[in-house]
Amino acid sequence: MPGFDYKFLEKPKRRFQCPLCSKAMREPVQVSTCGHRFCDTCLQEFLSEGVFKCPEDQLPLDYAKIYPDPELEQQILALAIRCIHSEEGCRWTGQMKQLQGHFSTCAFNVIPCPNRCSVKLTRRDLPDHLQH
Prior knowledge:
alpha+beta, Herpes Virus-1, three-stranded antiparallel β-sheet, two-stranded antiparallel sheet, 4 helices, 7 strands, elongated
């Protein structure tokens, strides 16, 4: 999966953006021979085309010298974003790493009916649904 496509409160710094997908990197990896960083999936897809050169500088790329970059990943996950339901009215903002936790209370998140009918609806519409 390519980089994160969330609504950031501030445009992510260039060092957080994948040169291949132009989004904030998801599971960033670093090419140790040249230091360039990419989303893991983006780089894997690039390499699957049979090109074993760094997409940034065209230097030979050694597959064994590509490493995860957990420090950069933590910095990216700390970036401030809006809820994916902001256009529907959710006002939540927070760090990207807090988004999944927010979904458990977001009034605009779509959830299945707890009575096991086939309906999926927003959390805020659930009380009306349960009364009918």
